[in-house]
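Good morning,

Attaching, inline, the backbone tokens for the sequence recovery test we're adding to the shared suite. The designed sequence is right after.
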């Protein structure tokens, strides 16, 4: 079987575009913002937990609470961004009524 390849052009941020002009994948700026958006809540949760622990003199408790909240925030951000990306990249997902 022969595989059919679509002709692709690169966008300004390094992502590929399909022949019809739609983005055909996440570009470098999208991936970078996704990575920063995942890392930021983790670092912020750890930092706030460490700060509260140092003020309350109860070292590991609030660090773990902050880390847990950071993980929840990073997961929520990832779900929101993937839903946004998938809804804009799949034109067949919206069926006309």
């Amino acid at each position: 079987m022969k595989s059919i390849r679509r002709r692709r052009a690169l966008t300004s941020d390094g992502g590929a575009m399909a022949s019809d002009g739609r983005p055909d994948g996440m570009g470098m700026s999208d991936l970078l913002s996704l990575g920063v958006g995942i890392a930021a809540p983790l670092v912020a949760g750890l930092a706030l937990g460490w700060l509260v622990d140092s003020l309350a003199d109860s070292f590991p408790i609030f660090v773990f609470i902050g880390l847990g909240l950071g993980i929840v925030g990073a997961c929520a951000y990832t779900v929101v961004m993937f839903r946004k990306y998938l809804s804009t990249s799949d034109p067949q997902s919206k069926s006309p009524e």
